[in-house]
Amino acid sequence: MVAAVGSFLEAKSAGGNWLLRIEDLDPPREVAGSAARILHELQRLGMEPDGQVLYQSSRHAAYQAHVKRLLKKGLAYPCACTRKDLPPSGIYQGTCRNGISGGKKPRTIRFRVNDETCKFTDKIQGQLSDTLTRSTGDFIIRRADGLYAYQLAVVVDDDFQGITQVVRGADLLESTFRQLCLQKALGLSTPAYMHLPLALSTDGKKLGKREQADPVKHKDPAFAVAQALFFLGHQPQPGLALGPLWDWALAHWNSDRIPRCTAVAPVKV
Ligand SMILES: [Zn+2]
């Protein structure tokens, strides 16, 4: 909800289009009907996406083509390791970098990282840097079950959709470095990034998807939008109906008001 309102206002206040993508990459974990429910909920809250909604479940051929290119360039390689073969840190030690040792079968495909420091400036979180050899090691781009990893799919689709700005929750902040490396390796475009603080429950825990969705669903849509605005540092006058509330929000949106942190407990209004 916070990411939807923040990204919608950031795009619309700049005269841009607000594009929606359904990241249904993982059919076994998908709740039936959830994409349709999200679309319906956004509409009820007054947020209509521009253009066609892109479903990642329809994009496997594009992901496959990009993985092939990385393999051909030697920037990706098959790996036979299971989760149990990884050290407790979870950082891949490069066991299969120079080929799989005798008798083992390839399971996943990993992207070969280098020890360059990767930097970007986030519109809210500021200047950030990371060295992937130390934080993740060579990471998976195609999983053992044949599905494509989130990191790969989003860079391919951001380029395909002509995305110029990504606005999302700070839980995805760390994964940005892997995406930047993939963009560079594949010659894809790099959008600007803005990571919004995460909504925590009042006891400081991360809200589950279910808890996040429910309060929104049962309340007056204007109340739900106003709550998201408060969370993002904006104070609309109380009691505005949905239409006037959006007019107010579009006229007053200022991303400098968003709390400069990665997580915030929700404001009670
Ligand atoms: Zn391996």
Give a written overview of the molecule.
Helix content is 35%, strand content 15%. It is α/β, with parallel strands linked by helices and 269 residues long. The model has no long low-confidence stretch (mean pLDDT 92). The chain folds into two domains: 1-58 and 197-269, 3-Layer(aba) Sandwich (Rossmann fold); 59-161 and 177-189, Rossmann fold (3-Layer(aba) Sandwich), CATH 3.40.50. Zinc ion is lined by residues 79-81, 95-96.
Properties at a glance:
alpha/beta, Rossmann fold, 9 helices, two-stranded parallel ribbon, 15% strand
Outline of the structure:
With 269 residues, this protein is an alpha/beta fold. It contains nine helices and eleven strands. The two termini are 16 Å apart.
Write the layout of secondary structure elements.
Elements lengths: L1 H12 L7 E2 L11 H11 L9 E2 L4 H13 L3 E4 L28 E4 L6 E5 L3 E5 L1 H4 L3 E4 L7 H11 L4 E5 L5 H12 L5 E5 L1 E2 L9 H10 L2 H11 L10 H11 L10 E2 L5
Parallel strand pairs: 1-2, 8-9, 10-11
Antiparallel strand pairs: 3-4, 4-7, 5-6
CATH architecture of the largest domain: 3-Layer(aba) Sandwich
The helix-and-strand class reads alpha/beta
Number of domains: 2
Unique bound compounds: zinc ion
The helix content is 25-40%
Radius of gyration: 20 Å
- In N-to-C order, the SSE pattern is HEHEHEEEEHEHEHEEHHHE
Query: Please, what is the CATH homologous superfamily of the largest domain?
Result: HUPs
Beta content: 5-15%
Q: Summarize the biggest pleated sheet.
A: 3 strands, antiparallel
Report the CATH C-level class of the largest domain. Answer: Alpha Beta
Principal-axis shape: elongated
The spatial strand order of the largest sheet comes to 3-4-7
| Low-pLDDT stretches | none
